[in-house]
């Protein structure tokens, strides 16, 4: 199975990592390391709550963000969530959460009983959105559009378009059967490209990327060519390179020191409200 493409050439893998594991969560990319190469994709966690580690109750996990959007892709199981946007509920396997923190949001969550696996991504926002009003979208599995082997989480692919209003970029979840061949032809200008594999092994023309690994490709517009070694599942991101520096706070990513100050001022204000209501614990 493959897409049609006209460009030729091989994109080599520039960096590979298995990240750093802390309990059930493996951090594959952060704004201070590979996020600077893959921006606007600046952070990626692969979480596997398989019962070996007792989950922390969500009342103790409130934390803030500004300047970014978080994108949660449910691989297996489910999570409960709550936000200071007023949204709360549960997201099942196959669902997608987009929380645009922008000027400031606090949120929390916990896995539902049983095994839960999740990819959580942070996206750096452009200046016009990094201190704007927050927004969130929750997409149920039946509403995630599909094109060939790909679920379209953000952006467009083929004739499918995500219902999430996000800055221009493409984020896909792809499932391939043993030996299946798939070519991803990125939109014009998408020189950023990366994959993270959660099941099986993904072979490129020059290397193999096993489950648990993230690979960032060299900065080109050429297609990405894959063959699955066994049943394989992965996420893929492509975009025009985010042209701004990453100015970092504890849970925030902005394009300037002033934008960061504005974001952190707002999350301090919201945090004080949560403290006054007795919501913040620990």
Provide a descriptive summary of the structure in words.
By secondary structure, the protein is mainly beta. The chain has helices spanning 35-38, 127-130, 257-276, and strands at residues 13-17, 20-22, 25-29, 41-49, 63-65, 68-76, 78-83, 88-92, 96-100, 105-111, 116-124, 135-139, 146-147, 150-154, 156-157, 160-161, 170-176, 181-184, 192-203, 208-210, 214-217, 224-239, 247-248, 253-254. The strands form five sheets. Strands 1, 13, 14, 17, 18, 19, 20, 21 and 22 form a nine-stranded antiparallel beta sheet that branches. A seven-stranded antiparallel beta sheet has the order 2-3-4-11-6-9-12. A four-stranded antiparallel beta sheet has the order 5-10-7-8. It is globular and about 55 Å long. The chain starts with 12 loop residues before the first strand and ends in a 6-residue tail after the last helix. The model is unreliable at 1-7 (pLDDT under 50).
